[in-house]
Design goal:
2 domains, Aspartate Aminotransferase, domain 2, homodimer, 3-stranded antiparallel β-sheet, alpha/beta, Aspartate Aminotransferase, domain 1, globular, 7-stranded mixed β-sheet, 383 residues
């Protein structure tokens, strides 16, 4: 049954059949009236998802391209930025800024923990000369399964006056992200996460403060230029030929999400994440993320003694058709990760915990598989 | 019948139903074994399409992103390049280089004509100090429907020693492009043209000379870094999450193309382009492109007196469901264009010429619609 898979990784995520098929519609002229209509609908719906009254743009590329767009539109070579990193993707954001000549000051926190807002406050308070032009932060760190508290961090950065650039690639739709209310100046999201569509698009929300910064920003840019995106959007177009199928799919997926309601969607992710954590704990496994900031999109789990991550993932794939993610970089053989964002059902969660328990037992782990699914089901059926 | 369209623009092009549905397959782990297998198959097939023994990479983005990748990987700020332009896309390539600080010397030819290889030879011969680091040229200029003679230009540039960077976005698969034999150092192609798949991917062929240049190239780069693409391809991956559906579609389309055979595919495009030109001439319309270099991918036609391009395109769309392209920039109201690349059948060509003749007559043009389709059919049925 190799063709029957439960894709439980933090992106690409499973795509509803109706959304998959929306992408199989015949091609149309991307500079014609039908495309303009679709682009307007999804752009307006994205503003509601980002909870912003400002601009949102759709670019064709991977999430990393969206982070590059944030850097090249908002910053200049030599600008000082504070890079708040709690994992692989925070480090990547910093690496992109460095590649373009930005002076990056790291404010790193131990992997598995969230950024301490008070440390950000203290560092910014010490910046008397207001040399720090921007703060870069990851909302949901996919590599460690930790969510930063943007509602606290946002106002701290705004008080200082620096721009706040947010990697929200895996957070948007899976959890609350109040772009305007939390003082986030630029937020990047990716299509292949909780939006329930395939990879190929990035979405960028940008407010007036970020536009002002952009006018002075001097890193060279062309493909990712948001000024071009704005000019073309006014005509119902994108500057360069977009990934048309993913735009069709975005329209279909956003209609599903709006029917569910954004708050209900956040609650679903929270409930399912809680069920995963309950099941994992009942199996006697140790969480990698600190519990106060465990992500509602992805759960990171320390490998049990005597079980290799690669062997566990292989057995889960080959025998149970369950696809989990390993760790990245230094965490490669230390943790594994369960993605539970996007089009994931309660049955998927139960099945995953069942397979995990059985596979661990088969690999010699001292676990009680029944306890895992029992705790999961109990959580899902709870108040 | 608004949902029954003949999409006759130079991209996005019609996609075969089987290829559309290949993109509707469930998502998979882009860092797993199934994706690695697909990536290897398409990469090897692309090398045959590009007629190269060197590297080919698949990047997620629009064609313009591929041109940006060419610039930022091969060049340094202050490098002198000779930009051979015969239209909008040649100018765009130059604009990208300028945006990244490259010293661009334009060698422009009148729109509607091809680049004169002898003028390129003369300019390079005058460059005694070998200051020109690279020559940028468009293989098929989509905005004017003119194809440059790369088989002649390539060896001229190689003799001088400069790198040759080629925009092959709309040429690959529609016409012969012998990357290695013609001395092309870096060639960019786009998925939504003759490859018969939706937009979202760009393909880049790069040889050893371009790799050597890359080692010294100092324009900052991250997302488009081909060094990263090479490292990850060795593991069966792309550095950033790719547009997975388009990779599935590329596999399906390349299998169709390999079954047809590359030479047969070029011959099909040549025959159909000839049929379009025969029909257009029989309608008494004037070609915009010089006949010696008229493109086999797209035909540009001067608007007849007394007929507005916008009105013609609107009537063709509303009444006949035929989607043609207008002109771009200064050609906006001067020409219209018929795309005939990719998954276009002989019946599509006949239907398009029929609709064009009827629409022109309805708009008051002095044309004989029957003569147009007669000439088209005669050409298609010819030797």
């Amino acid at each position: 049954m190799k063709d029957k898979q439960l894709l439980m990784i933090p992106g690409p995520t499973p795509v509803p059949q109706s959304v998959l098929l929306a992408g199989a519609a015949p091609m149309i002229n991307h500079r014609g009236p039908e495309f303009a209509e679709a682009l307007e609908e999804v752009t307006e719906a994205l503003k509601r998802v980002f909870q912003t009254r400002h601009d949102v743009f759709i670019l064709t590329g991977s999430g990393t391209g969206g982070l590059e767009a944030a850097v090249v539109n908002a910053l200049s070579p030599g600008d000082a930025v504070l890079s708040v990193s709690i994992g692989v993707f925070g480090d990547r954001f910093a690496a992109i800024a460095k590649a373009f000549g930005v002076k990056v000051e790291p404010l790193d926190f131990e992997w598995g923990t969230a950024a301490d807002p008070e440390k950000i406050r203290a560092r910014l308070a010490a910046d008397n000369k207001k040399e720090i032009k921007a703060v870069m932060v990851t909302h949901n760190e996919t590599s460690t399964g930790v969510t930063n508290d943007l509602a606290e961090i946002g106002p701290i950065v705004r008080e200082h006056g620096a721009l706040l650039l947010v990697d929200g690639i895996s957070s948007l739709v899976a959890m609350d992200c109040q772009t305007d209310a939390w003082c986030l100046d630029l937020v990047v999201a990716g299509s292949q996460k909780a939006f329930m569509i395939p990879p190929g698009l990035v979405f960028i929300a940008i407010n007036d403060r970020a536009w002002s910064a952009m006018e002075k920003a001097s890193i060279p840019r062309f493909y990712w230029d948001l000024g071009q995106a704005k000019d073309y959007l006014a005509r119902g177009q994108t500057p360069w030929t977009p990934a048309v199928p993913q735009v069709f799919q975005l329209r279909a997926a956003l209609r599903i999400l709006e029917a569910e309601g954004l708050q209900a969607c956040f609650a679903r992710h929270a409930r399912q994440a809680g069920a995963v954590r309950a099941g994992v704990k009942a199996l006697g496994l140790k969480m990698f993320a600190e519990s106060s900031h465990a992500s509602n999109a992805v759960t990171s789990i320390r490998k049990p003694d005597g079980v290799a991550v690669a062997a566990l993932r292989k057995l889960l794939l080959d025998k149970y058709g369950v696809v989990l993610a390993g760790g990245q970089q230094t965490l490669k053989d230390e943790i594994f990760r369960i993605g539970h964002l996007g089009h994931v059902s309660e049955s998927d969660i139960v099945a995953t915990l069942g397979a995990l328990g059985m596979a661990l037992k088969e690999l010699g782990g001292s676990v009680n598989p029944a306890a895992g699914v029992a705790a999961t089901v109990e959580h899902l059926g709870g108040p």
